[in-house]
Amino acid sequence: LQKPVNVAYGVADGRFSTTSSGNMLMAEKPPRTTGSPLMAAAPGVQGGRTFGGRLVRIAFWGLLALLLATAGTVFIASRTMTLQWAAQQATRFTDGRLQIEGITGSVLSEVAADALRWRDGDVAITLTSPRLTYHPLALLDGIIRVERIHAADVQVDLAPVPPGQPRPPFRLPEALTAMLPTAIERLDAGRVVVRRGPDELVRLYNLEAVFRHDGDRFNASLLNADIVTGESRTAARGEVAVLSRAPYATDGRFALRSPMQPEPLRMDLRINGPLEELSVRATTAIAGAPVEARTVLRPLDSRPLRQVRVDVKDFDLSRYDATLPATRLTGSYDAEVMPAWAKESKPLLIGPLSVVNAMPVPLTASGFR
Amino acid sequence: VSAAKAVVALMGGRLELQGLQTTGPLGEVSGDGWVAKDSFRLALASDKLLLRGIDSTLAPRILSARLAVEPIVAEAGAGPVGTAGTTGRAAMKVEATASDAVVAAELRGVLSGGRMHIDRAQLQSKPASGGASAGQATFSGTVGVRAPWPVDLSGEFERFEPAQLMTTPHALLNGTWRLAGRSGGADGGRFEAAATLAGSRLQGLPLAGTLAAV
Asked: Which of A109, A248, A308, B80 could form a disulfide with A295 if both were Cys (CB 3.0 to 4.6 A apart)?
């Protein structure tokens, strides 16, 4: 370029027109050749000027259209009205099963709502004050990256099972794979309550988790959850990985901690096997004595637990409670869980218990204090 | 207990023991029962209860014994009587019997507030030297069922031979006695005992008077 190029663009009679002045490769006066290899192609420049000019114009208009389209998309996507429209469409698309109230924010960064409800068959889930923060530009890297999913309160209502009727079995599909790898960097909820009919099954507080899906497997890390069942409160943390295809091989480890007396109870939980039939092994120590519980968990079955075996070794009652006699108990409890044969007054657990004491002494010599 | 077997069921908020069988220094004991949050029931029986399984200083007797502990129900269907003391548990009725060819013991009481209130306990024994009239010891009071194991008992002897139950010198006791204190605690326990005897004998020698000890 030897001089500035001035280009003017206009629209007249519905057609675009351009005028230009200055000096460039396709300027009116081609630069004098000096014998350079580039300039040696000068005889072809006349034809190339036409082709090059078209190419530049096409590229320019294409780029401009792309920029306008992007700007328009960004403008539309950043409007709350767009979200409200999308929420209405989602409700219509799901035949009313999904309801979103008071949605605000932007599709491009953060979406918040007053409440979100999902009702499908026997399950109803209500999220109070949900908030979703994510990075749409991560889609360019081929990943769905969510910075945070938060809800102040989550309520899961399961339909009550009529007495005497087993729950219908639930079957997983052959594969559960998202279109893109997904990363949820933080999933948290202040409170989660799961109810079946009027009965509260479990209540979680301060749930915090991380979730990843790389196409082949789901990985979830539970950073914290305070599980409340009845009057007991247990803090849980751990991680689990599940393959995304049947039989959904699962491997997980959790650490549970319960503020029991006289000392906190810490339990390590190991879960592995296909998702439909998980082997569960829980180990702990009560008053210094090792206790191990084993069971098979069928989470999709109408009877998730059928059998539990608990083994204890060298248990000293006086270490558990100083007023009790000194013992060295070794025993096992092999219990059936909610046996199908029981018609009425169905026991939660029933089975044989056998205990051997390696330190039998007369009652008054057993260390009453 | 050396070994125990039972069918254990967790049902309706209570833990049930069915077909309990134990062996050990106490002998062979069988029974059943249940434990709930504020109440329990226990029924134990033994045809071979070894007295020395309770304490090694007791006589080597093999007794047939029954023990029943059950909640006191105020009215039919009204549930257990209200809680008493600090345990939060309902009051329990306790009945125990034990006997062999020579001795027979019976106890009735109420368990509440961590203590057993013994209305009346009676121990009868045939005289070791023969004779028609049986000796007898009766007592009442309270016994703690948890640390520091407090005791406050008083009773009477009438031609009672303690050697029938304990490894003690032969004696024949008539009189009254009282025992108060605790067998546990930081200082290892403390008792105050008093006895007033008349017309009694120890190793064949006459024994009478008042004894007090701490």
From this structure: A308
